[in-house]
Amino acid sequence: MPVDRTIRGLAMGVLFVSALALGGCSTSVADLPSLGTPSDAPPRPKEAGSYLPVHDLPPDRDEQAMKPAEQQKIQAELKAARDRQATTAAQNGAAK
To answer: pLDDT tens digits for 58-78?
Structure first.
């Protein structure tokens, strides 16, 4: 019986190592023209793209995003919706 366990262990080890080896080759397989990309795909750039400029801020706005009257109207609508939800929740809680 120990021979069967040894063979099974070796077979599992070989499968594991081969899976790791094939996983490491996946990037080079994707670059093969016959396997990795379709024939109508655009060509890949020769140089990898650079990182996005995350520290570049957009220019300041000339005008406000929202007028104060519009902002007050939206705030009033949100407060009314909050109050409606609170009364509905209180009614549902009392009904149970």
So the answer is: 888 888 888 899 999 999 999
* DSSP category for residue 48: P
Place 53 in a pLDDT band, splitting at 50, 70 and 90.
confident
Contacts of 44 (CB under 8 A, 6+ apart): 37
The mean pLDDT of 37-58, rounded to a whole number, is 76
80-90 burial: b if 16+ Cβ within 10 Å, else e: eeeeeeeeeee
Tokens of 69: 């009257």
What distance in Å separates the CA atoms of residue 10 and residue 7, rounded to the nearest whole number?
A: 5
| Inter-residue contact 43 to 36 (CB < 8 Å) | no
